[in-house]
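[Amino acid chain]
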Amino acid sequence: MTSTKMRKMSEKTIIKKGISGTTILFIVLFLLKVGIGNTSVQDWSWWLITLPLWGGLALFLGILIIVLVVLGIIGLIAIIVD
């Protein structure tokens, strides 16, 4: 009974509240793009401004594609060698 109670007390749920760093970066770049201040960011493409929002997904998909291509090549080599 004591071990179950101890286990329940040691398990903690972490609830994260607030804005992520990529969202803050997007907001800053967006404000610089729309004209808050006279900066070179105003000349940037919207793809670069929104990069913090979709960049992580693009990086993950790129790595996944590379891994799948490498595994496919290894599979083809294994078929040819056999």
Observations:
- Residues 8 and 14 are 14 Å apart (CA to CA).
